Amino acid sequence: MKCPTCEVEGEKSKVFIGPSMTTLMVAQGFYDEEGQYHLHDPNQRSTTYSCSRDHSWIHGGVRECWCGWPKKGR
Predict the structure, then answer these.
(1) pLDDT score of 74
(2) CA angle 47, 51, 57 (to 5 degrees)
(3) How far apart are CA 32 and CA 17, in angstroms?
(4) Under a CB-based contact definition with an 8 Å cutoff, are residues 44 and 60 in contact?
(5) Minimal CB count within 10 Å: which of 34, 38, 47, 69?
(6) Which residue from 18, 14, 40 is spatially nearest to 28, judged by alpha carbons?
(7) How distant is the alpha carbon of residue 22 from its chain centre?
(8) What is the DSSP code string of 26-42?
(9) What is the pLDDT of residue 44?
């Protein structure tokens, strides 16, 4: 992983991983009609990062299933 601000500025920096958070909703997997396993996990995840040049950002979202959920809504 690289600092997005440093990349735009053409600089190099070290990236430090900060605190992470996740919501705690139940995610129950299932097998579809074809026998394929799905895990449509609605939990939001976020991790805070900072770099050695004092930039900081948050990266996260919902983990996508192999079928494209939640983007394809399956």
Answers:
(1) 56
(2) 40
(3) 37
(4) yes
(5) 34
(6) 40
(7) 10
(8) ----EE-TTS-EE----
(9) 96
